[in-house]
Write a structure and sequence with these properties.
Order of helices and strands: EHEHEEEHEHEHHHEEHHH
Distance between the termini: 32 Å
Mean pLDDT: 91
Number of strands: 9
Radius of gyration: 20 Å
CATH topology of the largest domain: Spore Coat Polysaccharide Biosynthesis Protein SpsA, Chain A
CATH class of the largest domain: Alpha Beta
Oligomer: single chain
Helix content: 25-40%
CATH superfamily of the largest domain: Spore Coat Polysaccharide Biosynthesis Protein SpsA, Chain A
Number of helices: 10
């Protein structure tokens, strides 16, 4: 039975619920889900919705309590302390689990990934590799970045979708080692715990196909090949009102509609630059009047749903 992990805070309650439900819909067999959250109570309403999916065997939510650390690069950035939660998995997840599949809350499942995960885990066991992930950068393409981190290998993985040999993680006291790396490289860390994990594993990971963590370089280009997981990394989030009508946002918006029965998930803080963009959308002939009305309705309903 698969064991899936999500780590997020209350800012990503809706997105995580959408991600989990999209995966639960595509799975053919039951799976266990684990969540590490800063405020589990805030996720209570969403939890009731996703518990209804038949392929969710169990879903456990743990309150993150390891808050005494000074985490790097969190000042004036869009990322919160939650990005570091997954470093502490051995403090929360049952030690009996052999392999743990971590998924970012801004990832939507598009097709049943069972066979792909089976293949990945079998290869990890055969080759005795402790982690699997998508190679995001190489020494050839990002030499300056590799030099900054002092990495010895020539590849760097994206941590948005990773498969972890959890027995190895626990037995090797990985958390302790990650914290030591974080302290030693505090001022060199740019991409948060992803940098820390790359420094630790230093190339010792199994490369997964791009179809398991598809991240469009420009944020909007759709994959021409079969895709199992679409990762909305970067600034082109499908719930930002200026991106709602992008073709690529349809994956997320449809999953949101299936779960919440609302046409669009649209977030807006009503800042000056946002209002300007909204006005441009409303006066544009590119969009139908119906879509404009749905956009406004979705924006205000999102405020109500939280």
């Amino acid at each position: 039975m698969y064991n899936f992990l999500y780590c997020f805070d209350s800012n990503y309650n809706v997105q995580a619920a959408v991600s989990i439900s999209s995966l639960a819909e595509k799975l053919e067999d039951k799976a266990n889900f684990y969540i590490i959250h800063n405020n589990p109570q805030s996720f209570k309403t969403h939890l009731k919705k996703i518990k209804k999916f038949k392929n969710i065997n169990t879903i456990d939510v743990f309150k993150f309590k390891d808050t005494e650390y000074d985490f790097p690069n969190l000042n004036e950035v869009h990322v919160s302390q939650a990005t570091y939660f997954r470093m502490f998995i051995e403090n929360y997840i049952p030690k009996s689990i052999e392999h743990l599949i971590y998924i970012d809350p801004d990832i939507v499942c598009l097709d049943n990934p069972t066979e792909m995960f089976d293949d990945i885990i079998v290869k990890m066991i055969e080759r005795k590799i402790p982690l699997a992930g998508l190679t995001e950068g190489t020494l050839d393409t990002s030499a300056t970045y590799f030099k900054n981190l002092g990495m010895k290998n020539d590849k760097y993985f994206n941590a948005g979708m990773i498969v972890i040999d959890f027995h190895h993680w626990v037995n090797q006291h990985t958390l302790k080692k990650l914290l030591q790396i974080m302290k030693k490289n505090y001022h060199r860390i740019i991409y948060w715990d992803q940098d820390i994990m790359n420094l630790h594993f230093d190339g010792n990971y199994l490369e997964i196909p791009r179809s398991m963590n598809y991240i469009p370089a420009d944020g909007v280009t759709m994959s021409e090949e079969k895709t199992y997981f679409h990762h909305y990394a970067g600034s082109k989030k499908p719930w930002y009102f200026e991106n709602v009508f992008n073709d690529i946002s349809e994956y997320y918006q449809q999953a949101y509609k299936n779960l919440f029965k609302n046409k669009f998930h649209v977030t807006m803080k009503f800042k000056k630059h946002e209002i300007k963009v909204l006005i441009n959308i409303l006066i544009s002939r590119k969009f139908k009047l119906r879509n404009k009305i749905q956009l406004i309705y979705g924006t205000f309903k999102t405020k109500i749903l939280g």
